[in-house]
Amino acid sequence: MLACDDLQRSLEFYRDALGFQETYRFEDDGKPTFVALRLGDGSSIGLGVVPDGGAGIHGLPQRPISGRFFELCVYCDDVDSSIEELAALGHPVLMPPADTPWGERIAYVADPDGHPVMVTATKT
């Protein structure tokens, strides 16, 4: 589960820009507060709204965030064109596409809350 400042903005990134499909939605007074998304046949992520000073069900504070607590990796067919599309949609590119010594091409963008998302593909 990823705590979001603006659920709609995060849905536009994960669902609309990265291609995740919505599998579940929970609403409170008609307003979505949690959405589950799946990419392909297996990768899933939950997006939930947690206000500043708010705590999770576990009782630990989830806001304000200090630092970055996770890094998501999303595989694609073409890193360069994917990064071009994400940048055109206004998502900040943290690292442009580059080849790695372990045989992948990778790049990083920031999601709407500033979390790093690695976009990667196996080099052919």
Automatic annotation (TrEMBL):
InterPro entries: Glyas_Bleomycin-R_OHBP_Dase, Glyas_Fos-R_dOase_dom, VOC_core. It holds the Pfam family Glyoxalase. PROSITE patterns: VOC (PS51819). Residues 1-122 form the VOC domain. Gene3D superfamilies: 2,3-Dihydroxybiphenyl 1,2-Dioxygenase, domain 1. It comes from the Bacteria. Signal peptide: none annotated. PANTHER family: BLR0126 PROTEIN, BLR2520 PROTEIN. This is VOC family protein. It comes from Actinomadura soli. The lineage of its organism: Bacteria, Bacillati, Actinomycetota, Actinomycetes, Streptosporangiales.
